[in-house]
Amino acid sequence: MSSQEGGAAEPGPDTVGPSTSSSTNNDAVTGDVITVTIGATVPTGFELTAAEEVKEKIGVDAQISKDRGRIYFPITTDELFQVHLLKSVDNLFVVVEEYHLYPFKESKEETLMEMMQLATTLPWTNALAVWKLNGTLKKKKGYRKGGNGTKVKSKREATDATVADTEQQELPQAASAAESQTKAESTTSAAESQTKAESTAEAETSAQDSEEAEPEAKVTKFRVTCNRAGDKHSFTSNEAARDFGGAVQEFFQWKADMTKFDIEVLLNIHNDEVVIGIALTEESLHRRNISHFGPTTLRSTLCYGMLRLCKPQASDIILDPMCGTGAIPLEGAIEFNSSFYLAGDNNDMAVNRTVNNVCHIQRRRAEKGSASGLPIDTVQWDLCNLPIRTGSVDIVITDMPFGKRMGSRKKNWDLYPSCLREMARVCTPGTGKAVLLTQDKKCFTKAISRMGGLWRRLHTVWVNVGGLHAGVYLLKRTGAVFGQTPEDIHESRGTVNAQGDENGDKQLS
User: Fold this and answer.
1) Which residue from 113, 69, 60 is spatially nearest to 88, judged by alpha carbons?
2) How far apart are CA 377 and CA 354, in angstroms?
3) What is the per-residue burial (b if ≥16 Cβ within 10 Å, else e) of 71-91?
4) How far is CA 262 from the centre of its chain?
5) In whole angstroms, what is the distance from residue 256 CA to residue 223 CA?
6) What is the pTM of this model?
7) How far apart are CA 71 and CA 52, in angstroms?
8) Exposed, middle or buried, 445 (CB in 10 Å: 0-12/13-18/19+)?
9) What single DSSP character describes residue 70?
């Protein structure tokens, strides 16, 4: 069975785990409406932002797990479609059961045996009902066309050292159709082909034969994915997934399949907290907007969190001077469309990717009958000498080069001060804001100190970006006049360090 294993979990804020422990309180049935707990993986560091979005769009309080990067919230099945409208979550799953203080045995054999027994006593009914309903909703929305169950799952990407992206299972309807197709020359296929060519009586006989063959064709395929964090466990993730999955297979008489599965069962273990769930998403929702990826493309969910941090208002001019593939301004133009976005880069390939991504979204909206226009424009420029009027931008938001895949730490020492100074020039004094992401914390802190009071740091959100510990810095533009403060007057616009210009031209995308 699939697994992802982490060592000692990264300490997070003082938060609580899923709502209740080890009972069926999560799954209350009222008539045909089921109340369940939904779990979601989110970009680490933006758990509070995700909880705020859940409260805003669904109207329920979300709880943040002690295991960073996850939130939990209750929902009724008649509102299940709303969870797919959330923009800050990577993956969704329905909770089968949860234990806050699971009594792990000291012996590995005893622990694994207990997990096997646990699989047969869990309240699976409501979670499976939600999984089936979720599949029906996605089919109605056209997420899946046809019954090709041979699609290989996309590569899984970790949101944290201990948090794995979950992937959506194939629909049961798609799976059964795929079973019929892949079992070539089967009785069902032959019967169906005869139905089209023969008389009504023969067709009825064929239909009966098809129905008799159906039970074998509808064997459900599944896999178990174990995400484990903590250094006090006597077992590995692979061992837990293997033994727990074996018990699930025996209990349901499902067939294990690591790639072409219908259901993905999640076994999340964080120290002494255990949550069992069923995945509701096929692939991470962070890939929703980008079709042309670059070497450092940000997740759409992380972009959304950065945008919410700066609270865009109607008619704001929002600038991304190092847009790369345009992930940030594109997310903003879609979700906060009362503002206008300027996306620019000094790398022509990056600009082309941004234009292609914008065109892709416009075509997709036009196909759905929606207005295809987006409040966004793309420019190629020198990021240390922007063709923008002084004080005309409300918000600057960008992903700065970390000095790893793009640029270098050494070059950042010249590039960062030049960029921050130019951002301060175009940003409105007194009211302007900047949201900047970087992993080069030492260089960034030094650059801010050289800005002569042009920027004031308000807040920092620590996030995980591809395994790197980075910071999202919220800055406020002070009322100081650009070019007249002691520290920045010697390098005002037009006399920016030439090496910084060269770094910007050649290293960013």
Assistant:
1) 69
2) 10
3) bbbbbebeebebbbebbbbbb
4) 21
5) 6
6) 0.74
7) 11
8) middle
9) E
> What is the Cα gyration radius of the chain?
26
For residue 449, CA distances in Å to 465, 480, 493 come to 25, 14, 18
pLDDT per residue as tens digits for the range 39-83? 999 999 999 999 999 999 999 999 998 778 899 999 999 999 999
Angle CA 41–174–221, to nearest 5: 70
Cβ contacts of residue 14 below 8 Å, gap of 6+?
A: none
Q: What does each C-alpha distance from 53 to 38, 39, 46, 86, 152 come to in angstroms?
A: 14, 14, 11, 7, 32
AA letter at 80: L
Residue located via tokens 């903590």? 230
Distances (CA, A) of 215 to 181, 182, 220: 15, 15, 10
Structure tokens at 200: 């009504």
Angle at 248 between CA 244 and CA 253, to 5 degrees: 150
**pLDDT tens per residue, range 233-282:** 999 999 999 999 999 999 999 999 999 999 999 999 999 999 999 999 88
Strands 91-99 and 33-41: antiparallel
d(CA 68, CA 273) in angstroms, rounded, equals 12
